[in-house]
Amino acid sequence: NAYLVLGDNPTRRQYDKARDDQVVAEELLGQVTKKKAEAQFDAFKALELLAASKPKPSATVTVYIAAKLEKMYYGGMKSVYRPRRVQTLDGWLHDEHCHKV
Questions:
Q1: pTM score over 0.85
Q2: What are the backbone dihedrals phi and psi of residue 80, each rounded to the nearest 5 degrees, phi first?
Q3: Measured over all CA atoms, what is the biggest interatomic distance in the chain, rounded to whole angstroms?
Q4: pLDDT for 1-47, tens place per residue?
Q5: What stretches of the chain show up as alpha helix (H) in DSSP?
Q6: E strands along 29-90, which residues?
Q7: Strand, helix or coil at 3?
Q8: Helix/strand/coil for 81
Q9: Rounded to an integer, what distance in angstroms lies between the CA atom of residue 36 and that of residue 40?
Q10: Which residues are CB-contacts of 86 (< 8 A; sequence separation ≥ 6)?
Q11: Cα(20)–Cα(69) distance, rounded to whole angstroms?
Q12: In sequence order, which residues have a C-beta less than 8 Å from that of residue 44 and are 6 or more positions away?
């Protein structure tokens, strides 16, 4: 692929001029600092950081519900109110949440 790019005379002249300009600058000014190469993206490192930042799994809570057998057999909904704590911008909010079972 480089042969195709440098095979074109105007493009080749442009590359040669840039090389010659750098050689002249090094001779006149001493060592010219070259632009540092950018770090490549490391997907394995990103995946490790992502795995480390995952929250821990929440605990399973067993809740006993009293319901009539007919309601379980014929269907229907049972409402269970449980206290919960929610973090807001102002702090923690304590309220009861309705779970439909």
A1: no
A2: -125, 125
A3: 96
A4: 677 777 888 888 888 888 888 787 777 777 666 666 778 888 999 99
A5: 2-7, 9-29, 43-52, 69-74
A6: 79-88
A7: helix
A8: strand
A9: 12
A10: 92, 93, 95
A11: 91
A12: none
